[in-house]
Amino acid sequence: MGLPHGANPAIEAVNLSRSYQIRSGWLRPRTKTIDAVRGVSFTIERGELFGLLGPNGAGKTTTIKMLNTLLLPTDGTARVLGFDVTEHPVEVRRRIGYVFGGDKGLYDRLSALDNLRYFAELYGVEAARQLPRIHELLELVGLSGRERERVEGYSRGMRQRLHIARGLLHEPEVLFLDEPSIGVDPVAARALRETVEGLNAQGVTILLTTHYMAEADELCDRIAVIADGVIQVIGTPEALKSGVAADTVVEIEVAGLTGEHEASLRALSGVLWVEAEKTEAQACLLTIRAKAGADIYSAALGILAGLHIVRVSGREPSLEDAYVAIVGGPAYRASAETP
């Protein structure tokens, strides 16, 4: 069965929705409807690396599972490479790969080679093509020479690279990557990013979900931010960042910070948000974002007077700043393409 004539986008979602019903109580059970995804619409072009970002519970994984036929939509439609996900699920599955973060999906007591042989059979890869394809993928993901070791001895990063190899066995045109670098150390995460970039350069269309903003900024051609089951904004990383480009971002590394200090900083005029992150030096890195023109340097230092301040610096707003602004409230004003 060939592709339908004129099917240009790799993925097209139109008003895609998914609701669940949950029951609670015993003596008087009640049924409640949860709207996990509410009218999501977007298009991903062939060869594009598209990011889907959002907080936990925003609807990212539910959206991906509807697109890759693991969940039926409650409403709306979705097409992958021209095939409707509900009417032609088998055709969709033949053309997609799905890689998710975590340890599930591999057999620990088998070697990487035996895992890939097993999944090649499941995916219907021709027998004569299996071993050459497996060795191509082991080379691609950097596991050549380690393929005969049991997966139970693999690091988290090696497992994730094997997950990617598994998802590519049948040479899919579209690859879904659901938080592939979760729990992976920085070195392994960089190797994963290089692998993803290499796949995209070969023409594979990729839909990526991640909580790592730097990863999304580096990899994605365009990004959709989803919150409360609704797409909030779609645009390039540069377009999303332009929405907070005029804001002031100040970083202060300080020791002895308390909750009272944070509350006082948040109460300053013009401050949009404050985040405190512990550093290795037993100090805290404060990130303060304020409206353009707000003089927060002197006010913030006044609140922190008496504490040991390691450094104070300003920086350009990042994709993380834009993301926080988008999911944090309606104050975000982007020049990005909106859905």
From TrEMBL:
Protein's cellular compartments: Cell membrane
InterPro entries on file: AAA+_ATPase (IPR003593), ABC_transporter-like_ATP-bd (IPR003439), ABC_transporter_ATP-binding (IPR050763), P-loop_NTPase (IPR027417)
SUPFAM superfamilies in the cross-refs: P-loop containing nucleoside triphosphate hydrolases
Extent of the signal sequence: none
Similarity comment: Belongs to the ABC transporter superfamily.
PANTHER family: ABC TRANSPORTER ATP-BINDING PROTEIN, ABC TRANSPORTER ATP-BINDING PROTEIN NATA
Alphabetized Pfam families for the sequence: ABC_tran
Keywords, sorted A to Z: Antibiotic resistance, ATP-binding, Nucleotide-binding, Transport
Gene3D superfamilies from the UniProt entry: P-loop containing nucleotide triphosphate hydrolases
Topology relative to the membrane: Peripheral membrane protein
GO molecular function, one term: ATP binding
Organism of derivation: Nonomuraea helvata
Protein name (record): ABC transporter ATP-binding protein
Location of the ABC transporter domain: 11-253
